[in-house]
Design goal:
By secondary structure, this protein is of the alpha/beta class. It is built from 7 helices and 5 strands, in the order E-H-E-H-E-H-E-H-E-H-H-H. Strands 1-2-3-4-5 form a 5-stranded parallel sheet, covered by helices on one side.
Length: 160
């Protein structure tokens, strides 16, 4: 598979407790994504020596994450909380942090997100439509991922 030969990193999403971290690692996850900031999840990921991307929205949550030693966060749900504009404004008080927005990221606003220096990556469900997942239609999902990667590369190249 692509994960076994190193072409793809496999992570587990919507992890909300330590038991789910353990299950994800047992299933082969090499990183964990959580919808919120949980010390229990962060500590268990450290125990397994894997990266964790906890979800934050407010400066208070961000500062709690900084206190846990984190510097990269999921910004979720981005579309409901000002999107790329809000993330850009976080660069003022938090200049050394990075945010990976999810929730409201779509092909039409990809450039707005990826043009920000504090956004190294994005996540979006448009890459894995429910019908394609249910049908195990890996060709459709791979095509959507390739198109997203092409878009992202062209956005980044335009800036350099």
């Amino acid at each position: 598979s692509m994960a076994k030969d190193g072409r793809v990193m496999v992570g587990a999403g919507t992890v909300i407790n330590a038991r789910q971290v353990d299950e994800a690692v047992s299933a082969g996850a090499t990183f964990v994504v959580s919808p919120g900031l949980s010390r229990e999840v962060v500590d268990r990921c450290r125990h397994h020596d894997i990266p964790v991307l906890p979800g934050v929205i407010t400066p208070t949550e961000i500062m709690a994450g900084i206190d846990m030693g984190l510097d990269t966060f999921k910004f979720f749900p981005a579309g409901n909380f000002g999107g790329a504009t809000t993330i850009a404004s976080l660069d003022g008080p938090f200049p050394n942090l990075r945010f990976v927005p999810t929730g409201g990221v779509k092909p039409h606003n990809l450039a707005d997100f990826l043009s920000r220096p504090n956004i190294p990556a994005v996540g979006g469900t448009w890459l894995t439509p429910a019908d394609a997942v249910a049908a195990r239609d890996s060709r459709t999902i791979a095509n959507l991922a390739r198109e997203a990667a092409r878009s992202a590369h062209s956005i980044v190249e335009e800036q350099s």
